[in-house]
Automatic annotation (TrEMBL):
The gene is murD. Pathway: Cell wall biogenesis; peptidoglycan biosynthesis. ATP binds at residues 119-125. Residues 1-24 form the signal peptide. Residues 313-426 form the Mur ligase C-terminal domain. The lineage of its organism: Bacteria, Bacillati, Bacillota, Bacilli, Bacillales. Keywords: ATP-binding, Cell cycle, Cell division, Cell shape, Cell wall biogenesis/degradation, Cytoplasm, Ligase, Nucleotide-binding, Peptidoglycan synthesis, Signal. This is UDP-N-acetylmuramoylalanine--D-glutamate ligase.
Length: 450
């Protein structure tokens, strides 16, 4: 672990706990900062806060008292999920107090270079693919962030031989100062998280921070099929490498004659790739570029692409039973993600969909429902899905109570050669605590089928 004097004898407020807050507070304590932790959960119900108190860290629980700003903090390190209109955060910004996220701390103490991945869709799959390719190629990668161990924990044990591969949300990227990945990947940009950012422009600006501190010695991997990304990232000093799923590129990664190419070098026949879905080609091209510039050979890249079938809850293959193939795409918590999943399959499909009602309609899915032979719907949005199915001309529609009931109903409506796909197009919170819980229940019920 590198030492940094940036926080030594500085007053730092860690706002919000969860895993990242606990790790940030402990690390700052090691770096000899004067740390105060503030979390909304009451102390008596907060084992994380209790553990930090035992380390000698000041803990304030139960609310976010605005009076804390009178204590003269030099920095605030906030949980990425806490919005900037939180009175403590907005008050700190007005006072000129730097507001950071735990990713910045990780970067400051890491001896290993970072490979940072952002975008609206595909971050987790791309992050995992990059990690697997580097691992297969003997580069000793470490995976961090939302799909691994908290970044500031990973960074403390990383050496120069490692690469820290990290998925980065817009929330995290708003709280960086010096963070500089050796390789940054910007997969795509679509409208999302407007409730947090207020506008697509602010969301895009936050994402663009991934390359803010890069230099000519670094790499920026960009989607050539979205020219607006080039405009957004025009300021970047990094060496730009493009990918395209639509056009062949002489330089960069693209598709030609059913093969993936990098700089006109044939990498793999697409028919040999195990990961389903056209939308995953973007993720694959990103991972190929990151791996090639990291010095990974084609053999390691090919081996990963021939065996990697997906990240859990993201168009994840579960099993085949009596000729039916089951896929878990519980992470599809919006219409855009569900579109991608529906596009992935040409076979007749039984769709399981529904969940939290955020007020929108699902008619945008209709052009992508041509292969849907039956819809099994559940949750608050079931009535809306029934209306959409009628407009799409889907004859078989069944309304059930939950995912537990949806799986046997889908199997009953299917026949040999069909795909049975959970891709809810909705958040899970009306019935399940997280999309992971919803997906795990789907997997469990699929394995119960005889």
């Amino acid at each position: 672990m590198k030492t940094t004097l940036k926080f030594k004898h500085k007053k730092v407020l860690v706002l919000g706990l969860a895993k990242s807050g606990v790790s940030a507070a402990s690390l700052l304590h090691k770096l000899e900062a004067f740390v105060t932790v503030n979390d909304r959960k009451p102390f008596s119900e907060n084992p994380e806060a209790q553990g930090l108190l035992q380390q000698g860290i000041k803990v304030i629980c139960g609310s976010h008292p605005i009076e804390l700003l009178d204590e003269g903090f030099d920095y605030i390190v906030k949980n990425p999920g806490i919005p900037y209109d939180n009175p403590l955060v907005s008050g700190a910004v007005k006072k000129g107090i730097p507001v950071l996220t735990e990713v910045e701390l990780a970067y400051l103490v890491s001896e290993a270079p970072f490979i940072g991945i952002t975008g609206t869709n595909g971050k987790t799959t791309t992050t995992t693919l990059v990690y697997e390719m580097l691992d297969k190629g003997g580069k000793h990668p470490l995976i961090a962030g939302n799909i691994g161990t908290v970044a500031s924990e990973v960074a403390q044990t990383a050496s120069e031989e490692n690469n820290v591969v990290i998925e980065l949300s817009s929330f995290q990227l708003m709280g960086i100062d010096t963070f500089r990945p050796k390789i940054s990947i910007f997969i795509n940009l679509y409208e999302a998280h407007l409730d947090y950012h207020g506008s697509i422009d602010e969301y895009a600006k936050a994402k663009a921070n991934i390359t803010a501190n890069q230099t000519e010695d670094d790499y920026l991997i960009i989607n050539a099929d979205q020219p607006e990304l080039d405009q957004l990232l025009h300021f970047s000093k990094a060496r730009k490498i493009y990918f395209s799923t639509k056009n062949h590129l002489e330089q960069g990664a693209s598709i030609k004659d059913g093969h993936i190419f990098f700089n006109n070098e044939k990498i793999i026949d697409i028919s040999q790739i195990a990961l389903p879905g056209k939308h995953n080609l973007e993720n694959i091209l990103c991972a190929v570029i990151a791996s090639k510039v990291s010095g990974i050979g084609n053999g390691a890249i090919q081996e990963v692409l021939k065996t990697f079938t997906g990240v859990k809850h993201r168009t994840q293959f579960v099993r085949t039973l009596n000729g039916r193939s089951f896929y878990n795409d519980s992470k599809a918590t919006n219409v855009l993600a569900a579109k991608s999943a529906l596009e992935a399959f040409e076979q007749p499909t039984i769709l399981l969909a529904g969940g939290l009602d955020r007020g929108g309609s699902f008619d945008e899915l209709i052009p992508y429902m041509t292969n849907i032979k039956a819809l099994i719907t559940f949750g608050e949005t079931a009535p809306k899905f029934i209306e959409t199915a009628a407009k799409a001309g889907i004859q078989t529609v069944k309304h059930v109570d939950n995912v537990e009931a949806a799986v046997p109903a889908a199997y009953e409506a299917s026949e040999q050669g069909d795909v049975i796909l959970l891709s809810p197009a909705c958040a899970s919170w009306d019935q399940y605590r997280t999309f992971e819980v919803r997906g795990d229940i789907f997997i469990e019920e699929v394995h119960k089928l005889k």
